Amino acid sequence: MGCWQRLLIFGGVLLRGGGGASVPLAGSRVLVCRRQLSGADSETLKQRRAQIMSRGLPKQKPIEGVKQVIVVASGKGGVGKSTTAVNLALALAANDSSKAVGLLDVDVYGPSIPKMMNLKGNPELSQSNLMRPLLNYGIACMSMGFLVEETAPVVWRGLMVMSAIEKLLRQVDWGQLDYLVVDMPPGTGDVQISVSQHIPISGAVIVSTPQDIALMDARKGAEMFRKVHVPVLGLVQNMSVFQCPKCKHRTHIFGADGARRLARTLDLDVLGDIPLHLNIRETSDTGQPIVFSQPESDEQVKKPMRRSLLVLDAILKEMKKMLSEDKP
After folding, report:
1. How far apart are CA 83 and CA 80, in angstroms?
2. First to last CA, the chain
3. Domain map of the chain by residue range?
4. Distance CA 98, CA 93 (A)
5. Is the distance from CB of 81 to CB of 184 less than 8 angstroms?
6. DSSP letter for each residue of 252-310
7. 208: three-class secondary structure by DSSP
8. CB-based contact 14:7 (threshold 8 Å)
9. Do 136 and 174 touch, CB atoms closer than 8 A?
10. Which residues contact 258 (CB under 8 A, 6 or more apart)?
11. Measuring CA to CA, how many Å separate 327 from each of 70, 230, 267?
């Protein structure tokens, strides 16, 4: 018997051998495609698929009172995404005291913002039954970590997680914010897609170490945002280099310039390099982020602060450029 041929079938299954008879299921309608689709037919099919897929997509609705949303994401966990998000929010506020800044932690399974921002307690409810963010260092913060015990694991399946995300997006009284920085969970799953499709996002910042393993997932994160039409502002190369505090020797523990190579591949900008520095780790663990707690320290400590502000400047420039391109 000859090779099996593939047939395009509507409403049933048809098997056909090289020399045998066709055997359709009873009552099925069968269309046999014996040639490749033409270019026009192929394009029509793509458009039809796009129409069908778009039917189920939710309509984006802005978060009430919030002007600009910046998401900080990474494909891999443990690359310093939350630390970057916290210091970015504080740098935004320090850069212009007239701007109101908020910080939203949508990492349901591993919220870090409460500890990094030195916040505890449950949010109060407003008269309209909305949760009021907790405030510290001039930043309004909301996190799943405020709603569960610090040591309690969140053992939830998808539907419960998505319900929690919906509450964090829609049932928080932010007041009036110029910027809302969103600390995303690692990966490219339901939470990332839901946030991207439900609210308009000004831009995404991808955080990665220079290590190849982290860069593989960082690339997936950037490509995901492009697929859901979220502008990628650029990459932050975190833990880029370690300088020994005694001998001043510089070591690239996670490799050198990996994020720069990835940025060239994706045609993105590197927004900045953040070193692997003891003070950044210590201030994060004690809930006193370095951008707030050590802005005027000695030269070695000021470097991470300055680098954070350089990253902020690069982000703001990218946002302004994208906004100008959108104008007719």
Report:
1. 5
2. 63
3. 66-326
4. 8
5. yes
6. -TT-SSHHHHHHHHHT--EEEEE---HHHHHHHHTT--HHHH-TTS-HHHHHHHHHHHH
7. strand
8. yes
9. no
10. 208, 209, 210, 211, 212, 214, 215, 237
11. 20, 17, 22
Q: Give every CB contact of residue 26 below 8 A, 6+ residues apart in sequence.
A: none
Predicted TM-score (pTM) of this structure: 0.76
Reading phi first (left if > 0) and then psi (alpha if -120 to 50, else beta), residue 187 is in left
pLDDT band at 314 (very low <50, low <70, confident <90, very high): confident
Fold of the 66-326 domain: Rossmann fold (3.40.50)
Residue-level pLDDT at 190: 87
**Phi (first) and psi of residue 194, to 5 degrees:** -65, -45
Residue with tokens 């991808």: 206
Residue type, 209: T
Q: Which amino acid is at 191?
A: V
Structure confidence at residue 1 (pLDDT): 45
Q: Which two structure tokens, joined as six digits, stand for 291? A: 């951008």
pLDDT recorded at residue 113: 95
CA dihedral sign of residues 275, 276, 279, 285: positive
Residue 50 DSSP SS3: helix
